[in-house]
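Sanity check

After download, print the first record. It should look like this:
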Amino acid sequence: MILILIIALIVFGPPVLYFAYKSREFRKFLAGAFFVSGGIQFYLYLTGVTVPLLGTSYIQTPELSGVRSIIHFALFLITLYFGFIRKPKD
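Expected structure tokens:
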């Protein structure tokens, strides 16, 4: 599973970073995605739900959901600033 995640990071990471750097609309999309993801992760943390990882015998603990919600909320604030608040350079 780790190998698949590393390959996915190598394949999809650079294009996502490129589009996030070039496109303000893409940063707006990422802001919404991080907001929703952070909210769901926080909800899973508050309710104490463990989430099984598809295709493995591993589970995501509620504590990990709490940490992920903090990270996603921070990423939401960053993309919110660069997507909506900061004026684009002309």
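If your output differs, re-run the checksum step. Summary of this record's structure: Helices lie at 2-22, 24-47, 62-85.
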